[in-house]
Each structure stands twice: as C-alpha cells, then as structure tokens.
C-alpha cells in the first residue's frame, strides 16, 4: 500500500503503523538487561533491581496517553501552536505552555520499592527534604513525592524543585513545590533526584558535585541516564556540554552494558557509592504520529562514600 501524499494523511498513516507495532511490542524488554547483564562488572550486577514488567499504574498512564494521542482536534491544535511558538521559545517551553509531552518513568509504587532496595531510610527524621533537579512539569516529581509518603505516611515532606525553563517553573509552583535556582542553597537533603538531566545539562560533573555537596550524609541520590549516551544541551548554540559525562562520547560508541560500567565508574570517581540500579522505559506522551514514545533509562541509587 502506497504512503499517502497529504501531510495529515501521512501522519495518520504513520500513526496506524506505529501504533500497530506498539501493540505487538513486548514491554518486558524495557526492564531486561541485554544478555542478562553478563558484561556488567560483578559488584554492580549484584545491585540490579528487576522491575520485570509494567505495573497497572504504568499501563494506565499508557492508556491515557493513547486516548490523548487519538484526540485529532487536540493534536492539530498542538501542531498549529508549536509552529508559531517555536519561533520564540525552546521545545521545553512550548511543551510547558501547551501542557503537552509529559514524561513517565515509574509508578509511585515502583519508585517506593526501588528506593527501598537502595537502602533509603527515614531513620529518626520526621521532616524529610526532597529535591528534584530539572523537574520539568513536575509530574515525575509528584510520583516520587507520593512514593516517599507510600514508604512512610507519617513524615512531613518538603519538596523542592529546580528547572531552567521559566514556563516549567510555573507548572512546578502550580503543584505547590518550592522552586529554587541554586541547589547549593540546600543542605542535608535526604533525597535528590536528577532524572534524565545529566545528558541535557551543560556541565554534568559540576552538577554531580553540587548534588554530592547538598546530600544528607545518610541520604540517597536517584539518577537516570538514557543509554546509548548522547549529550544534547538545548540552551546552547553548539548543543554540546562543557565536558561530556562519559569520556568515550562522541568519538566512540559502546555496547549498552559497557556504558553502564563506565557510568557507574564515573559516579564512584566523584565520591558516590552504587546502592541499587534498574532499567526502565523513559516514556513520553504521544502526538498525531504515535500514541507514546520511549527511550531506555538506567536508574541508579547512590549514596555518599
């Protein structure tokens, strides 16, 4: 069957075929390490926390994304608005203004179980400080905050968030998060998350140093990195970082499990200890061409050495 010529017809044609592929895709592969992780260094591989498959909350998010993608008039409205807004705004700001393109990594239940596997404990603290670096629209921040209360409903939780997009900052304030500009202004933070930020910020190693400095001595940091590693800085004319997080990029590509080794070795060299890690999909709401999109995340819980 020939591909249609009209723009809208081509988009709907692509959506039909892309969504047919999604329906037959084995989502368990999102959580499975290639070759069962045999190339991963033993001391790291023993820390693997296997999520196995998407849980009901994840499947519900996917179902909602499919419904939103199928709303033809909404998607056409987004296309028209983006064509105008991108003349003045970044992609992130466009999404924030239109309230589209929300992300999903884990459900609050999965986050809670993962944090537990990484040794996150409240101890005698009843007031918990949580900071999400590069929080976007705050949807994932909210799930992590709910995961903390799922672990202990008696805590008093202070949620802080940082974000470079001024429009996304408004989205965070709408959720009653305390927006900060400098994470070094906080001390003894019990949990710091930086989810898919290390490959999008201009200076990832400085960011890791700041996280290390602000982290409570017994706290945990939750980091996520898309693999294969590919750095892109939105707010830079070159789109390149000051220094790449992983030293082999961009001159050489490495297998998935080898990049995990290098990522974890980089974290250890900066004073972190690997407590637990997992593999998951980094999901994004779809559009007129596909119900939802995904990349593959490695998520790791670290503590201070």
Q: What would your notes on this structure say?
A:
It is a single chain. This protein is of the alpha/beta class. The chain contains ten helices and eight strands. The chain has helices at residues 7-23, 42-45, 56-69, 72-85, 91-98, 108-117, 139-151, 166-174, 204-214, 256-269, and strands spanning 103-104, 127-133, 156-162, 178-179, 189-195, 215-226, 272-285, 292-304. The chain has an eight-stranded mixed beta sheet, with helices on both faces. A hairpin with a 6-residue loop joins strand 7 (272-285) and strand 8. The longest helix is centred in the N-terminal third of the chain and has 17 residues, at 7-23. The chain starts with 6 loop residues before the first helix and ends with a strand. The mean pLDDT is 92.
Features:
305 residues, alpha/beta, 8-stranded mixed β-sheet, 37% helix, globular
Topology:
Layout: H1 7-23, H2 42-45, H3 56-69, H4 72-85, H5 91-98, E1 103-104, H6 108-117, E2 127-133, H7 139-151, E3 156-162, H8 166-174, E4 178-179, E5 189-195, H9 204-214, E6 215-226, H10 256-269, E7 272-285, E8 292-304
Parallel strand pairs: 2-3, 2-5, 3-4, 5-6
Antiparallel strand pairs: 1-7, 6-8, 7-8
């Amino acid at each position: 069957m020939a591909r249609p010529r009209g723009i809208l017809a081509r988009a709907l044609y692509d959506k039909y075929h892309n969504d047919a592929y999604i329906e037959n895709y084995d989502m368990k592969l999102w959580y499975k390490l290639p070759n069962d992780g045999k190339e991963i260094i033993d001391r790291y591989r023993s820390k693997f926390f296997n999520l196995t498959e998407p849980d009901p909350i994840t499947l519900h998010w996917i179902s909602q994304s499919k419904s939103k993608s199928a709303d033809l008039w909404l998607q056409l409205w987004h296309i028209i608005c983006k064509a105008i807004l991108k003349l003045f705004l970044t992609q992130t700001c466009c999404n924030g203004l239109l309230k589209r393109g929300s992300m999903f990594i884990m459900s609050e239940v999965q986050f809670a179980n993962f944090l537990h596997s990484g040794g996150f404990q409240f101890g005698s603290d009843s007031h918990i400080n949580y900071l999400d670096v590069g929080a976007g629209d705050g949807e994932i921040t909210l799930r992590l905050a709910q995961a903390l209360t799922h672990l202990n409903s008696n805590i008093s939780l202070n949620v802080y968030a940082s974000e470079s997009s001024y429009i996304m900052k408004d989205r965070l304030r709408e959720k009653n998060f305390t927006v900060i500009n400098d994470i070094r202004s906080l001390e003894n933070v019990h949990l710091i998350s930086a989810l898919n930020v290390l490959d999008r910020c201009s200076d990832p190693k400085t960011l890791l140093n700041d996280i290390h400095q602000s982290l409570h001595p017994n706290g945990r940091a939750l980091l996520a990195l898309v693999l294969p590693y590919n750095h892109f800085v939105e707010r830079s004319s070159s789109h390149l970082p000051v220094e790449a997080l992983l030293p082999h990029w961009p001159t050489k590509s490495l297998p998935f499990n080898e990049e995990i080794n290098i990522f974890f070795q980089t974290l250890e060299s900066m004073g972190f200890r690997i407590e637990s890690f997992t593999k998951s999909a980094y999901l994004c709401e779809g559009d007129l061409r596909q119900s939802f999109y995904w990349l593959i995340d490695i998520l790791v819980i670290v503590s201070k050495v």
